[in-house]
């Protein structure tokens, strides 16, 4: 029991410190690295709770894709961060209001989960694994919400492609119609070469 408490406080303290460093460090590359560290520690906490599927999804999806993508985007783009920080004081009141609203929502959620008006949860038996129980709930009770989230992400991906698509002149492009309508006799020439004569 003491070992579990020590491991929990170790993971939690490192996660809180790294999450604080994400928003306080001036170098964006260091912020993304601290974000990756926070994700790893959150995955460790989920493993301690017995939610191994959520922990692996956190490592694979967030650390392996999102955080690394952030890191490469920050390192590849030449962004003038000193210019971006000029409007921090101007937009600070809006940020404070949004932070208070988010804190109030989190407190209401905490009260709903752990307070008197707890959510009714389905009992999970010992013969059902954590991943299987999560899949049953996700693909039965919340299937329409899950599919809607997928459609929203698909539309967002198509919109990002359309917005960033640029047509440059002087660049060779693939013409699918010409490739499909091409006949072998138009592009292939067969020569019969006699023995020991060459071309």
Give a description of the structure.
The structure is a single chain. Among the domains are: 7-79, NADH-ubiquinone/plastoquinone oxidoreductase chain 6, subunit NuoJ (Four Helix Bundle (Hemerythrin (Met), subunit A)), CATH 1.20.120.1200; 126-164, no CATH class. The chain contains nine helices and no strands. It has helices spanning 2-24, 28-48, 52-76, 81-84, 88-114, 130-141, 143-164, 176-180, 184-187. Helix 1 runs antiparallel to helix 2 (28-48) and helix 2 (28-48) packs antiparallel against helix 3 (52-76). It is extended and about 90 Å long. The chain starts with a helix and ends in a 12-residue tail after the last helix.
Going by CATH, the homologous superfamily of the domain at 7-79 would be NADH-ubiquinone/plastoquinone oxidoreductase chain 6, subunit NuoJ
Q: What percent of residues are in strands?
A: under 5%
Number of helices: 9
CATH architecture label name of the domain at 7-79: Up-down Bundle
CATH topology of the domain at 7-79: Four Helix Bundle (Hemerythrin (Met), subunit A)
Stretches where pLDDT falls below 50 for ≥5 residues?
A: none
Q: Given the helix and strand composition, which structural class is it?
A: mainly alpha
The description of the largest β-sheet is: none
SSE string, helices as H and strands as E = HHHHHHHHH
Query: Mean of the pLDDT scores?
Result: 81
Could you tell me how far the N terminus lies from the C terminus, measured between alpha carbons in angstroms? 85 Å
Kindly state the percentage of residues in helix. Answer: over 70%
Number of strands: 0
* Radius of gyration over C-alpha positions, nearest whole angstrom: 27 Å
What is the C-level CATH assignment of the domain at 7-79?
Mainly Alpha
Globally, the shape reads extended
């Amino acid at each position: 029991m003491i070992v579990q408490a020590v491991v929990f406080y170790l993971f939690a303290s490192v996660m809180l410190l790294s999450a604080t460093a994400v928003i306080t460090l001036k170098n964006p590359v260091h912020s993304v690295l601290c974000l990756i560290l926070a994700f790893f520690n959150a995955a460790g906490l989920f493993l301690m709770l017995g939610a191994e599927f959520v922990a692996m999804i956190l490592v694979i999806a967030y650390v392996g894709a999102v955080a690394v993508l952030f890191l490469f985007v920050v390192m590849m783009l030449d962004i003038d961060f000193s210019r971006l920080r000029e409007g921090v004081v101007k937009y600070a009141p809006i940020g404070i209001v949004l932070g208070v609203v988010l804190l109030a929502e989190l407190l209401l959620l905490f009260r709903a989960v752990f307070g008197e008006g707890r959510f009714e949860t389905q009992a999970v038996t010992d013969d059902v694994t954590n991943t299987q129980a999560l899949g049953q709930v996700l693909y039965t009770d919340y299937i329409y919400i899950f599919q809607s989230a997928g459609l929203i992400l698909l539309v967002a991906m198509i919109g990002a492609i359309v917005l960033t698509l640029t047509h440059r002149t002087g660049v060779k492009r693939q013409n699918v119609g010409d490739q499909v309508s091409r006949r072998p006799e138009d592009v292939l020439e067969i020569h019969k070469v006699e023995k020991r004569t060459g071309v």
